[in-house]
């Protein structure tokens, strides 16, 4: 279980790196960064809730992403000040966009499906190795 968490953490760092780079390259659409943000949230949720089913992680991740996006409609002075910081801008975003909701949905769905395929193959290989050892 610990080994799996380490793998997810390395993937988490890689996704953050790719997300930052995607904002610096002009020809990459802005929605790709939002897609990666959703992937990052899914992986972060998976790190903390490693024993939960992927569908539970997907639903919780979607709720987190949607919650953060809808929270951008809240415009109190203190939260605007937080959003003006680098970390606040990256974590909380700047303003509500429906396209972000779509990108989050695709990001979570892509990650969920990818994880299901990878875990299915991983579990199959693990069972196969155990049978071979007997």
Quick structural summary:
By secondary structure, this protein is mostly helical.
| Rg value | 17 Å
- Major β-sheet annotation: none
Choose one word for the global shape.
globular
Low confidence ranges: none
Residues in β-strands, percent: under 5%
Oligomer: single chain
Report how far the terminal alpha carbons are from each other.
23 Å
Structural class: mainly alpha
- Let me know the number of strands: 0
User: H/E series, N to C?
Assistant: HHHHHH
Describe this structure in words.
By secondary structure, the chain is mainly α. Helices cover 82% and strands 0% of the residues. The chain has helices spanning 2-24, 30-48, 54-71, 77-83, 86-92, 98-133. The longest helix is centred in the last third of the chain and has 36 residues, at 98-133. The two termini are 23 Å apart. 19% of the residues are buried. The mean pLDDT is 86.
List keywords for this structure.
134 residues, mainly alpha, 6 helices
Layout: helices, strands, pairs:
Elements: H1 2-24, H2 30-48, H3 54-71, H4 77-83, H5 86-92, H6 98-133
Helix pairs in contact: 1-2, 2-3, 2-6, 3-6
